[in-house]
Design goal:
With 327 residues, the protein is of the alpha/beta class. It folds into 2 domains: 118 residues, Rossmann fold, CATH 3.40.50.720; 161 residues, Dihydrodipicolinate Reductase, domain 2, CATH 3.30.360.10. The protein contains 7 helices and 18 strands. The protein has an 8-stranded mixed β-sheet, sandwiched between helices. Strands 11, 12, 13, 14, 15, 16, 17 and 18 form an 8-stranded mixed β-sheet that branches. The protein has a two-stranded antiparallel sheet with strand order 3-4. Strand 1, helix 1 and strand 2 form a beta-alpha-beta unit. It is globular, with a radius of gyration of 20 Å. It starts with a strand and ends with a helix. Bound molecules: nicotinamide-adenine-dinucleotide. The site of nicotinamide-adenine-dinucleotide has 26 residues, from helix 1. It holds the Pfam family Gp_dh_N. GO terms for molecular function: NAD binding; oxidoreductase activity, acting on the aldehyde or oxo group of donors, NAD or NADP as acceptor. Keywords: NAD, Nucleotide-binding, Oxidoreductase. InterPro entries: GlycerAld/Erythrose_P_DH (IPR020831), GlycerAld_3-P_DH_cat (IPR020829), GlycerAld_3-P_DH_NAD(P)-bd (IPR020828), NAD(P)-bd_dom_sf (IPR036291). Belongs to the glyceraldehyde-3-phosphate dehydrogenase family.
């Protein structure tokens, strides 16, 4: 039985809670957030994206009881003060977004956890393991690991597969639902545009996707540019890749490449579809990316490829996959 704690019960932390509570081989022993646990229990029960929890979830003093299982609920801002040693926590799922550097994540180890799995890319000194790409390099020695972000999980496979033809350059724009790292109404923000009303505008934001892709695919260093455009929907993302390949290709060749990958070695990681999807259709999809073959277009060696993903559900699926490798 792997003993798990979740630090940061936001969108990602709560979705992991819902998915892990009844999972074989997992014991969810504690959650921690700076917010009150009765509020967390309420948000676990009623979710604006994925609907009402199908089991039972109630708040008890110092605990959240879900499907009859008692999960300790802590309210501690400083991770070094968390009782991970007493609770014999094997892995902390660090989902607060506040401890994504090595120094930050190490605080959970100091508190007595054996290992930490981030919910984002993290600093460059933390091993970056994208499930379905390089998770096999994980050794038992690693105590802090990163699964990449949702955008990295989508893009890595696509660029790796297309680089079999040869990529000269790639421009990537991830059209992404708004997140809590934006403001709902206009407010001051270090990245000015993230401070603009999230549900009112199409908002380009700076991202670190290029850096993580260059770490994973060093052969593409200097060939990648990326931006994310936040759009007024609460869930879902559409990645739009424009590539110059080393040689001319066809729409049929590109689609065949991805349809074959999805049906074989990338089964469960990549999906290929020719259905006329919109972003809502991707809700609850467990794949890292869903290639939309209807939108592939090619002019000579110039390729446009579109992939959908559920930034929450698809991503937490990969975190859970990676967790399974952390025994
Ligand atoms: N939402 C997404 O689509 C998505 C996808 C992939 C990765 N991520 C990454 O996951 C992380 C969390 O994202 P989110 O969307 O769940 O954010 P969120 O804002 O919904 O949740 C963050 C939670 O952490 C809590 N928190 C803040 N400081 C804390 C502290 N010191 N100790 C404990 N808890 C604390 C907050 O109260 C909140 O409940 C971020 O790093 C984000 O980049 C998010």
């Amino acid at each position: 039985m792997m003993r798990i704690a979740i630090n940061g019960m936001g969108r990602i932390g709560r979705l992991l809670f819902r998915r892990l509570i009844d999972m074989d081989g997992i014991e969810l022993v504690a959650v921690n957030d700076i917010m009150d646990s009765d509020n967390l229990a309420y948000l676990l029960k009623y979710d604006s994206i994925y609907g009402t929890f199908t089991g039972t979830v109630v708040h008890a003093p110092g605990a959240i009881v879900a499907n009859g299982k008692n999960v300790k609920a802590l309210q501690q801002k400083d991770p070094t003060l968390l009782p991970w040693k007493d609770l014999r926590v094997d892995v902390v799922l660090e989902c607060s977004g506040s401890f994504s550097s090595r120094e930050g994540a190490e605080q959970h180890l100091k508190a007595g956890a054996r290992k930490v799995l981030l919910s984002t890319t993290g600093s460059a000194d933390i091993p970056l393991l994208v499930y379905g790409f390089n998770q096999h390099v994980l050794t038992n020695e690693e105590t802090i690991i990163s699964p990449g972000g949702c955008m990295t999980n989508c893009s890595t496979h696509i660029l790796y597969i297309l680089n079999a033809i040869g990529i000269k350059s790639v421009q990537c724009n991830i059209l992404h639902s708004y997140t809590s790292r934006q403001e709902l109404v206009d407010a001051p923000h270090k990245q000015f545009r993230r401070g603009r009303a999230a549900a009112e505008a199409i908002i380009p934001v700076e991202i670190d996707l290029q850096q993580s892709l260059e770490r994973l695919l060093p052969a593409l260093k200097g060939k990648i540019a990326s931006v994310s455009t936040r759009v007024p929907v609460a869930n879902g993302a559409m990645a739009d890749f424009t590539l110059q390949l080393e040689q001319e290709t066809t729409r049929q060749e590109i689609n065949k490449l991805f349809a074959t990958a999805a049906a074989n070695e990338y089964k469960g990681i990549i999906e290929y579809t020719e259905d006329p999807l919109v972003s809502l259709d991707i809700k609850g999809n467990t794949h890292s990316c869903v290639i939309d073959g209807t939108l592939t277009s090619v002019v000579g060696n110039h390729v446009k490829l579109i992939a959908w993903f559920d930034n929450e559900y698809g991503f937490t699926t990969r975190m859970i996959d990676l967790l399974g490798k952390m025994a």
